[in-house]
Write a structure and sequence with these properties.
The protein has 168 residues and is an alpha+beta fold. It has one domain: Alpha-Beta Plaits, CATH 3.30.70. Helix content is 38%, strand content 11%. It has five helices and four strands; from the N terminus they run αβαββαβαα. The chain has helices at residues 2-13, 48-52, 84-88, 119-122, 130-166, and strands spanning 36-38, 58-64, 69-74, 97-99. The protein has a two-stranded antiparallel ribbon with strand order 1-4. The chain has a two-stranded antiparallel sheet with strand order 2-3. The model has no long low-confidence stretch (mean pLDDT 93). The structure holds iron/sulfur cluster (2 copies). The site of one iron/sulfur cluster has 14 residues, from α3.
């Protein structure tokens, strides 16, 4: 009886177990596989995350052919939260790619911002632009990668020619 009384008192002063949905958003459960966060400082630009991503939600654009520096572009509206990119990333344990426990809100009047989301979404001002701007990123991804490949090939040829000349 006393136990029941204490339990009732505890319930009277504790927070309710229920949520006020639809007036308050329903929280994601512990361990929820949500949005992908990225840390450029730890990235080695190996492209493994891009290559494994089923819907193509990660696209790198090469911005410096000399150093091989690339910009990470992530489209959270294409992401299916499968986590494959994180599993594939050789630097994930250090925190280069992390799957957080919150999802990206549906495309509304604004888009989420933050360094951890990469370049693409941070450059979007109007949510209506997401689709068309993503197509531009996809084109740039192909174009700059082809150019980078050609650049590296030309550099190798230059090096080989210089070596051959020095051995004459
Ligand atoms: S979680 Fe899956 S869909 Fe999302 S970016 Fe990573 S690999 Fe792509
Ligand atoms: S797999 Fe990891 S290290 Fe490689 S490019 Fe992607 S984020 Fe960078």
């Amino acid at each position: 009886m006393l136990k029941m009384f204490i339990e009732s008192l505890k319930n009277l002063v504790s927070e309710p177990e229920t949520i006020k949905y639809p007036f308050a958003p329903s929280p994601e459960p512990k361990g929820y596989r949500g949005t992908i966060h990225y840390n450029e400082e730890l990235c080695i630009f190996c492209d493994k995350c891009e290559n494994i991503c089923p819907p193509g939600a990660i696209k790198f654009v090469v911005v410096d052919y000399e150093t091989g520096k690339k910009e990470y572009n992530y489209n959270p509206y294409l992401c299916i939260y499968c986590g494959a990119c994180v599993r594939e990333c050789p630097k994930a344990e250090e925190g280069c790619l992390v799957q957080v426990e919150t999802r990206t809100p549906p495309l509304g009047r604004s888009v989420p911002k933050g360094k951890e989301l990469g370049y693409f979404i941070n450059r979007i001002e109007d949510p209506k632009e997401v689709e068309s701007k993503w197509r531009e990123i996809e084109e740039l991804n192909i174009k700059t990668k082809e150019e980078y490949k050609a650049y590296k090939k030309a550099k190798r040829a230059q090096k080989a020619a210089a070596k051959a000349k020095s051995e004459e």
